[in-house]
Amino acid sequence: MRAKWTDLAMEARGSVPVSDVRLKSGIERTVVRIEDEQTARELGRPQGTYVTLSCPQTMTIELSMREALSRELAQAIRQMLPEHARTVLVTGLGNRSVTPDALGPRTVERVLVTRHMDGCLPDDVSARMASVCAAAPGVLGVTGLETAEVLRGMAEHVQPDAVIAVDALAARSSARICSTIQIADTGISPGSGVGNHQKALTRETLGAPVIAVGVPMVVYASTIASDAMSDMIREDGGTEADEEKVAACVERVVSERLGDLIVTPREVDALVERMAGILAEGINLALHPGLSREEIEQLMAT
Amino acid sequence: MRAKWTDLAMEARGSVPVSDVRLKSGIERTVVRIEDEQTARELGRPQGTYVTLSCPQTMTIELSMREALSRELAQAIRQMLPEHARTVLVTGLGNRSVTPDALGPRTVERVLVTRHMDGCLPDDVSARMASVCAAAPGVLGVTGLETAEVLRGMAEHVQPDAVIAVDALAARSSARICSTIQIADTGISPGSGVGNHQKALTRETLGAPVIAVGVPMVVYASTIASDAMSDMIREDGGTEADEEKVAACVERVVSERLGDLIVTPREVDALVERMAGILAEGINLALHPGLSREEIEQLMAT
Amino acid sequence: MRAKWTDLAMEARGSVPVSDVRLKSGIERTVVRIEDEQTARELGRPQGTYVTLSCPQTMTIELSMREALSRELAQAIRQMLPEHARTVLVTGLGNRSVTPDALGPRTVERVLVTRHMDGCLPDDVSARMASVCAAAPGVLGVTGLETAEVLRGMAEHVQPDAVIAVDALAARSSARICSTIQIADTGISPGSGVGNHQKALTRETLGAPVIAVGVPMVVYASTIASDAMSDMIREDGGTEADEEKVAACVERVVSERLGDLIVTPREVDALVERMAGILAEGINLALHPGLSREEIEQLMAT
Amino acid sequence: MRAKWTDLAMEARGSVPVSDVRLKSGIERTVVRIEDEQTARELGRPQGTYVTLSCPQTMTIELSMREALSRELAQAIRQMLPEHARTVLVTGLGNRSVTPDALGPRTVERVLVTRHMDGCLPDDVSARMASVCAAAPGVLGVTGLETAEVLRGMAEHVQPDAVIAVDALAARSSARICSTIQIADTGISPGSGVGNHQKALTRETLGAPVIAVGVPMVVYASTIASDAMSDMIREDGGTEADEEKVAACVERVVSERLGDLIVTPREVDALVERMAGILAEGINLALHPGLSREEIEQLMAT
């Protein structure tokens, strides 16, 4: 039962102070810093900086908001990248065949890959571009391989200056779905939300700093159900939900015999494409600061 | 707000008596008959016979259960087909690009289509086969065409003896997802669960009896949340949920700014394939009673 | 054996005079007019006007060329549309599951569909937009339904002022693949290149003028082989290829036991996406002359 | 220009003697052994054993032929596997987004993966199963990573007893497409047919024997054209084709400005599925000799 799970630090932050800025574009940028081990243990996530970009949750996204999101994402990534990072491995976690989970693989398909052109480009072009490689290693249940095993092997050969890992997240609140991007300098534990305890992707395991980029695509059904009940109890003047009673009710309405029950927008296929496009644009702008949006678009054209 | 909606007659049946049989295969067959107009109005669905096949909800389906389901489905369809039906139009409703909604289109892809071979096959083969055509007309929001408009045009040219319409359903209970097949001789209203009031597909609109075949792939998130609350109220000895209060709580946890929020198993892509395979097998067996399972498989081979 | 087949009037034109203009954008516009019945019979295609837009054949298309192509396509379509056409049915012919054949279905997915919003939009917006519906009816071998049967049914209900039919073509020369767009006011015979003699889509069958838009995606392997041989014979000073001898050689190297052997670029999947994008942009600009490219992009956004 | 290229040793074998057996099932098994370095140089491929299974080239495959092919493939693989091989890495080479090239990735999707269940299964089951992991590493142009780099990293962590590498091949003759399976104990050079000289996948680079399994899905258009011309010259009593003249004619009819022009059956999408199914069945039977076809099917069920 995954009641009340969230992958967003800003939802889990408890009493940790945050800095919160509303930008001109209408995006809100929130920064949570987990700075000591005790806080990390309390919040169940590693020490580091978690930046969240939030925008209004809308059926159709304005093209200007789309551009603002990718620009802010690029800036957040650049602040976490080591100076003079030249070789970067971008990896899309998750299962390509599970729609909301496909965000990572769908993003890396749109990342501008350049490492195979090292040495083939004119110097003036190549000076403005990073050396980028990209891979979606698939998930343990499909490949029989732990994500960290696969990526460690790649990292040993590529020796990247940084790794960017893109993953779909689970939020606590359905208002966060597709309206929030989290960028963290902490690395990432693949499948952590799914309860598969795999090796984390961190500087320790991959030999380079790991920047995690994620977007909530789902809320667990058990979270929705138990939050509705807690809300009602508060409404009735109750102070504290009876955890056990809530859990028993959740179990009756949430059948998990087919695995996790998740809550998504019906249009999640189209929303995955939207968000994959925005993430890839942001990553491309971050990694190739010498290229304009138009130059990147032309290089991606077929 | 789609709280408490169900496309399953057996969940909505109120006090209508049902016949209920557990078959040797472990499948439960339930028959709900709505026989007068008042009951129809009370239950919000047309008069007719609704057969439901239920099996255990399991991560991996036993091949023997799969065969039993398609065999029982074939029998239920055959009992609703007009005698000597020779020409049948099978149609898959729903949006191919929305995963749980793709059940209909994915099913028709696996239906054995034979109408274009009329007159080309040896007599002894053709005597054992129906003349079947199949189409997935898409949804109004994508094509700008009402499903009934498209199908009426087809039916006028094809003059089928019967229409079989396959659609993904919404259930009230998550325990019904992918464990239930409903077969009804009542026709179907495309998008009725989605609140788009389009013309129904019935004998009146299509000129031939319409057999509806559906499988619940989703529960509305608002249903899960409100059912959890009602359950809790009953648990607390409450008799009746305060509808308005429940609705207000649901609205706070169910953000519908991205359209309907639905609850599905995370593995819904694979489950759609599972169920599309079972439905197509059942339809193929029903329409070509002169062919064995193996002959159909060979005719479908590429 | 489909040696020497072409769907392009400009390749088949024989001695028909053409008008040929090179535009500033680098696009060449050629117009072939078949104006009497005898010429139509000689060329094996109906009377009417065939406009061809040609651009350089390149691995990566310049974004400026892409825009020029869609702009010229829009203009060519507008010249063939009846004045004051308000309701238009756009249809994508061909088989979605056969990569080069999927051009039509992939194009209609990107057409801005508006008919279902008739009456829902503010007057000032709706005055600038046509009422567009779009459908990909599939192919006879998959649906058991003739394309003309399906479209006639739709046209009877929609009563369009014009039909635009998009299809993948076969060229005579591999240099034409993805570098040529043909627009004709003659209607189209689905599967004509494939040798399935189905009813044509014309003003007679659909009750509205039919504008055919196509792009060569393949050359038949038998064409490539026999053209190579004819070329060699000419090179050797031979005047006329011995048709029978050539056909016998072709048969030895072109195995048609798996159906038509076709010649395509290896990257045909990506090229189908490129061309579907260009065609849809051109169609959208033609049908909604009151909207800018940016407004259309925003209306298509998800 | 890739005229006359073939990935099949039996087409390139020159004067190397072969053993050739027609099996009861109608399959022909041919074995080519390249046993010394000079022959290897002459044929442009490494020393080792190349087994070819050939069956009739048919639009629809008989289910009995399908089973015979997978059974023979399983046997050929088993004869090349090291005794007591327990851990096997299956890898699908090629680009998932290029239809004929997707054979490898589509095959590994259907391989029964078991490594992640090591230690979780009852002893009696696990004794009958190998420990299998599977991955499709993508291609250099998409990932920026050499296939050998990625696989070497995986192999270092997994330490497999053998690697099975599945790839789509180019044949010399169109009669070989989808009617031939080649199994070789020599390893494989990814993209060798494509002219990208990447590191080979061999015992030396991966630390375990590499069994290559491939099926011809294409012939190069330049091969078809030049073979037609050579055939005609022979027909005319010519002894030797004038290489240069042939190449010039090929260049005129084969436009390579969009990359390689390839010859495939129009139905190649469906044929890739057919062959991926047969290869995966053969690999599954080879790796889990303790399991029946039915047990494997049940373990793959969803």
Q: Give the SSE string of chain A.
A: HEEHEHEHHEHHEEHEHHEHH
* Average pLDDT figure of chain A: 93
Shape of chain A: globular
- Helicity range of the residues of chain A? 25-40%
**How many strand segments of chain A?**
9
Uncertain ranges of chain A? none
Terminal CA distance of chain A reads 45 Å
Tell me the quaternary state: homotetramer
Please count the helical segments of chain A.
12
Most residues in contact: chain pair: A-B, 48 and 48 residues
Sheet bearing the most strands of chain A, described?
A: 9 strands, mixed
Share of residues in strands of chain A: 15-25%
Structural class of chain A: alpha/beta
Task: Please tell me how large the radius of gyration of chain A is.
Answer: 20 Å
Report a brief summary of the structure.
With 302 residues, chain A is an alpha/beta fold.
Would you kindly provide a written description of the structure presented here, covering whatever features stand out?
Four copies of one chain form a homotetramer. With 302 residues, chain A is an alpha/beta fold. Helices cover 37% and strands 20% of the residues of chain A. Chain A has helices at 9-12, 37-43, 63-80, 103-108, 123-126, 140-143, 147-158, 203-206, 221-235, 243-253, 268-287, 293-300, and strands at residues 18-22, 28-34, 48-54, 87-92, 131-135, 162-171, 180-184, 210-220, 261-265. In chain A, strands 1, 2, 3, 4, 5, 6, 7, 8 and 9 form a nine-stranded mixed sheet that branches. Strand 9 (261-265) of chain C pairs antiparallel with strand 9 (261-265) of chain D, so a sheet runs across the interface.
